[in-house]
Amino acid sequence: MNTFTMKLQPNHFYYMKNGTKRIELRLNDEKRSKICIGDKIIFYKEPLLDESFETTVIKLLKYNTFEELINEYGTKICADETITKQDLLNELEKFYTKEKQSKYGVLGIMISLN
Predict the structure, then answer these.
(1) Is there a cis peptide before residue 47, judged by omega within 30 degrees of 0?
(2) Of 47, 60, 85, 92, which is least packed with CB atoms within 10 Å of its CB?
(3) For residue 83, what pLDDT is reported?
(4) Distances (CA, A) of 82 to 21, 40, 49, 89, 91
(5) pTM for this one?
(6) Residues of the chain whose pLDDT is less than 70?
(7) 72-99 burial, b if ≥16 CB within 10 A, otherwise e?
């Protein structure tokens, strides 16, 4: 079992910490492709990284695009029910362009809070 660290924007940090968000969305790049079921992830709140919590990976979801993943699972579990699918996709594309999604694919990391 390995332990990874990841940073989250404040709203997504609180969605996950409060139990709404159960799937973290990332590119399936070289770093994230090393994550396995049972690994721990410690999430830190940006920008100060002064708050954190620990989770356990319970399932890995591999898709070609974030849109495919969100279509399958919905925004309620990928963020929060107050966010529309299009708003979530727009937010993700600020960090992960469609070109990067095509190159690496995307990863949904289903977690449970520890």
Answers:
(1) yes
(2) 47
(3) 94
(4) 11, 28, 25, 14, 14
(5) 0.95
(6) none
(7) ebebebbbbeebeeeebbebbeeebeee
Tokens of 100: 């990067």
CATH number of the structural domain 3-113: 2.30.130.30
Alpha helices in 1-114 (DSSP H): 10-17, 66-73, 75-78, 85-95, 98-104
Residue 4: per-residue pLDDT: 98
Determine whether 6 is exposed, middle or buried from the number of CB atoms within 10 Å of its CB (0-12, 13-18, 19+). Answer: middle
Give me the pLDDT at residue 24, please.
Answer: 98
The counts of H helices and E strands in the chain are 5, 5
